[in-house]
Amino acid sequence: MLKEVHHKFLISGHTHLEADSIHASIEKAKKHTTMDIEIPRDWSTLVRSIQRKGGIKVIDMSQDDFYNISALQKAYFVNRKKNADGEQMSFLKANYFLYTKENPGKIFYKEGLLAKEDFKVWDITKKKKGQPDETQLVLERLHNSYPLPLPKTTLIR
Question: CA–CA distance from 149 to each of 12, 39, 126, 153 (Å)?
């Protein structure tokens, strides 16, 4: 069972991530393919065909895999400007976030990656009196119609 998530942002321009080389492989394959890429399934077919050590894991998702979480966000969370110590919270300065199962709605963050630096706490939970009963909230699908209708202005090639 997942108990915590460590979300680290590295300094721009000073990194090399495995994802960078994967993206480069995809761009190279796209440049050299004669295949038409018109729908998402075409992209997954192209990416699956790329020969590289370890391969690339492709997970096809359907319309039913996406949920509208805006009702959940509005019911339980608020965007506070200050952390638990009354200091201004700045996403631009924070580069390490920690989310724990034991503290839902509390985001622990650092402005550096050093282990000795203490986490600051950003509490985004609404006060209890404004929250609905958890059993009343229903998570809805992001899109109810299947398949999604195309707009009438869609051009056909």
Answer: 39, 14, 36, 12
Residue 45 tokens, joined: 């077919």
Q: Does 130 fall in a domain?
A: yes
**pLDDT by residue (tens digit) across 70-85?**
888 888 888 889 999 9
Count of the separate structural domains present in the chain: 2
Q: pTM of the entire structure?
A: 0.60
Neighbours of 89 (CB within 10 A): 18
CA distance 128 to 83: 19
Residues 74 and 55 in one domain: no
- Domain range enclosing 130: 4-11+64-141
The predicted-structure confidence for 127-155, as pLDDT tens digits, reads as follows 776 566 666 667 788 887 777 777 777 56
Cα 64 from chain centroid (whole Å): 17
Coil, helix or strand at residue 82: strand
